[in-house]
Design goal:
The structure holds two protein chains of two kinds.
Chain A: H1 2-27, H2 31-52, H3 55-94, H4 106-134, H5 141-163, E1 174-181, H6 188-204, E2 211-218, H7 223-235, E3 241-245, H8 247-260, E4 264-267, E5 279-282, H9 286-299, E6 304-310, H10 313-329, E7 332-339, H11 347-355, E8 360-364, H12 369-379, E9 385-388, E10 404-408, H13 413-422, H14 433-448, H15 453-459, E11 462-465, E12 468-471, E13 478-479, E14 483-489, E15 492-495
Parallel strand pairs in A: 1-2, 1-3, 3-4, 4-5, 5-13, 6-7, 6-8, 8-9, 9-10
Antiparallel strand pairs in A: 10-14, 11-12, 14-15
Chain B: H1 2-29
The chains are: A alpha/beta, B mainly alpha.
Chain lengths: ~500, ~45
């Protein structure tokens, strides 16, 4: 009895350490409180039982072990970590009906596996302890082995069945598509025109098998508040799929869409958001923009660049890619400053940038900072301005007259004409609109074909979109497309004459 | 006696292989952050 209790306690303590390590990733320092409970509780209960032979103490010890075995070992360690890691990855490589699992850092995955293995030892030695206390076997040995084997095979089969994404016809023939974009704050222009592009796509649908209902979700400016709005759309409105834009919000939607097992197509430049399972990005990548930008800079004889940019993830994604590509071809960065959203006086920065003798000033910001910066550059008689995308989304493009920049290649100009005719007061943002339109149509295609939309997007390799052909590599979550060089002429974006 | 030695050795080997396999899978597929959270620093 003593030996069985000692062994049982050792396995509980080792497993509690694994549980604590694993929960540091999700709970942070609070994991140590959980660890303390698991490390102190079982020895205390066993000590109480040893001294008093209390049934309550023994039952409490068994219950704590049951918590470790079922809650941490089987549900979290096996079902939540070990099976997705090995079996989920294997199934996803065999069939697109299975999603690639979302993996955490190696420490999280390894401690999860050890948490599961530890719980098996806890189960084994708890069983031995109960046997020792009874003085007889709980089950005939062959029964115990058979039950363990049947339970193991049953769990594997259940995972294979549950992990598969299956087609489900929309309830009442209505497909609810969540349109998740901010419509206030610095993203007002992009968000509103994104929404209009999706509305145009819905209006353009001919006869369809299902009815498509747009569920508008204004996520505001704060990613934390956005999370609650997105959760409401998924849980209360029960959206079947999501079209979204802006990386900051696409990143928030990512884990929520994966948990709900519904697809998100996101006009997001942060390609890591596209996991190829439930999340897919669709916009020229920062690398593609940077390659074209540097090629155009070289063509224009530019050797030195000054960078004045906002501390926004999408914009800094462009900046990182431009700097990497510039370094590759020997273009030098003469000055760089990353500013926050509170800055309004750029004149000292402009003076310092000018002192570095750049051939061109690369700027990226949102309205109204973008216009303030544009105005202060113009006041300083600086007109050799360039960017990735930014002038296209300015509300005063005339401030950037003559500026050149890279942006989406809008091959279907009729799309822009129709948009401007239907929504005369809404600015057409080339950067996002074609992709918002295409994203909606890709989802519609999936439902019309009677395919699970996430599975359909996983298998889709090419799509003829309104901004040219989109391509996606097998297993990737990024639809790639080629950008183009644009120039602001007479206050409007125009494709550069050297455009091919 | 041999079985008593062999079983822990085999179990240790099995666990090592599982952990090494997990490492390869995480490296190949790429980690997306703990419990589906975005990588630290992206959303500053």
């Amino acid at each position: 009895m003593h030996e069985a209790a000692r062994r049982s306690l050792i396995t509980v303590i080792i497993t509690a350490v694994m549980i604590t390590a694993n929960h540091i990733y999700s709970l942070g320092p609070r994991a140590f409180a959980l660890g303390a409970l698991l490390l102190v509780g079982p020895p205390a209960l066993l000590w109480w039982f040893r001294n008093t032979k209390s049934r309550i103490a023994f039952a409490g010890y068994l219950l704590m072990n049951l918590w470790i075995i079922v809650g941490f070992g089987l549900m979290k360690g096996l079902w939540g970590i070990t099976l997705p890691l090995y079996l989920g990855t294997g199934l996803a490589s065999l069939s697109s009906a299975y999603p690639k699992p979302t993996l955490g850092p190696y420490g999280f995955e390894a401690s999860g596996i050890l948490m599961f293995i530890g719980s098996l030892f806890v189960a084994f030695y708890t069983y031995r302890l109960v046997e020792a206390k009874r003085g007889a076997a709980v089950l005939p040995r062959s029964w115990a082995r058979t039950s363990a084997l049947v339970a193991g095979v049953g769990l594997l089969a259940a995972f294979v069945a549950v992990d598969r994404d299956r087609w489900r016809a929309p309830v009442g023939g209505v497909v609810k598509i969540g349109v998740i974009v901010p419509r206030t704050g610095p993203y007002t222009i992009l968000g509103n025109s994104f929404l209009k592009a999706v509305e145009l796509a819905a209006a353009d649908l001919g006869r369809t098998r299902y009815q498509y209902q747009l569920v508008q979700v204004d996520v505001g400016e704060d990613p934390v508040e956005a999370r609650a709005a997105i959760q409401r759309a998924i849980r209360t409105e029960r959206v079947d799929a999501i079209v979204g834009g802006i990386s900051v919000f696409g990143a928030v939607t990512r884990s929520l869409a994966s948990a709900a097992r519904i697809p998100q197509t996101c006009v997001c430049s942060q390609t890591w958001i596209g996991d190829g399972a439930y999340n897919f990005t669709n916009i020229p990548t920062p690398d593609a923009e940077a390659k074209l930008w540097v090629r155009e800079a070289e063509r224009r004889g530019i050797r030195r660049v000054a960078l004045l940019t906002r501390d926004n993830p999408s914009m800094q994604g462009h900046v990182r890619a431009v700097k990497a590509e510039a370094a590759r071809v020997g273009l030098s960065i003469s000055y760089e400053y990353v500013f926050t959203d509170s800055m309004t006086d750029f004149r000292p920065l402009i003076a310092r940038a000018r002192a570095s003798n750049p051939d061109v000033y690369y700027v990226e910001a949102f309205s109204p900072q973008l216009e303030i910066l544009g105005r202060q550059l113009a006041e300083a008689q600086i007109h050799n301005v360039t960017s990735v995308v930014a002038p296209s989304i300015s509300v005063q493009r005339e401030l950037f007259e003559g500026a050149w920049y890279t942006d989406s290649d809008l091959r279907d100009m009729a799309f822009r004409a129709r948009f401007e005719e239907k929504y005369p007061g809404t600015q057409f943002a080339t950067h996002m609109m074609p992709y918002a339109y295409d994203d909606f149509n890709m989802l519609v295609q999936a439902f019309e074909r009677g395919q699970n939309p996430a599975v359909y997007l996983r298998t889709l390799a090419t799509y003829e979109g309104t901004a040219g052909r989109l391509t996606k590599k097998r297993g990737s979550g990024t639809f790639e497309s080629t950008p183009a060089v644009w120039v602001i002429r007479s206050g409007k974006p125009a494709l550069a004459t050297n455009h091919q | 006696m041999t079985k008593r030695i062999r079983t822990p050795t085999l179990l240790a080997l099995l666990i090592a292989v599982m952990l090494a396999g997990a490492y390869l899978i995480v490296v190949k597929n790429g980690s997306s952050g703990a419990a589906g959270l975005p990588p630290a620093g992206v959303l500053h």
